[in-house]
Every structure is written in structure tokens, then in C-alpha cells.
Design brief:
With about 90 residues, the protein is mostly helical. It contains four helices and two strands; from the N terminus they run H-E-E-H-H-H. Bound molecules: zinc ion.
Length: about 90
């Protein structure tokens, strides 16, 4: 419990240092401080709902909802690229 609280405080602090930056979908740390894991959606198009650390710690099945959530936010583009992204994720991309 204590660790969780410190983690939350750390995230709030990091977010305050990176106003306007979006964050990793799992650990919620801004992209300014974590390396994003890029997954190919299409030719010349990559998406990155997760940082390298979270990506490497999660199983493929655990990663998938983060990609689906991102595709949901992409609207029509998400519908268009969703199947290719799901294929990439299932292939370990
Ligand atoms: Zn992360």
C-alpha cells in the first residue's frame, strides 16, 4: 500500500514536470521520461500505447487492451488500422 502511494506521488510529480505530454497506458509516466515501445500499424505508421518497460513486463494478452484502447481513441483510423495492429501485437510486435 505504501509503495503504491509513493508510486502515485512520483507519477504526479513527473506529470507536473512534463505538462502536455501524454503517458504510457500502463504505468502512466509521461513519454518525456520513458522510452516508448513502437508497434508498426502500417507502412510508415507506428503506435505506442506502452513504454519499453511495461511492454516487456506484460504478456501479449495483457498488452492487447492497451492497443485496443488507443485504437478506440483514434476513431476512424483506429477502425482502419485496428486489425493490423492486433496482428502485430499477437506476433509479438
Ligand atoms: Zn509504462
Amino acid at each position: 500500500m505504501k509503495i503504491k502511494l509513493w508510486k502515485k506521488i512520483k507519477i504526479i510529480w513527473l506529470k507536473s514536470l512534463a505538462p502536455g505530454w501524454s503517458t504510457c497506458g500502463h504505468c502512466d509516466i509521461p513519454w518525456k521520461f520513458v522510452k516508448r515501445h513502437e508497434t508498426k500499424c502500417a507502412k510508415n505508421l507506428w503506435c505506442f500505447p506502452l513504454c519499453e518497460k511495461c511492454w516487456s513486463e506484460l504478456t501479449i494478452i495483457q498488452r492487447l487492451p492497451h492497443y485496443q484502447e488507443l485504437m478506440g481513441r483514434w476513431g476512424d483510423s483506429g477502425v482502419k488500422y485496428g486489425p493490423a495492429v492486433t496482428r502485430s501485437v499477437l506476433n509479438g510486435g
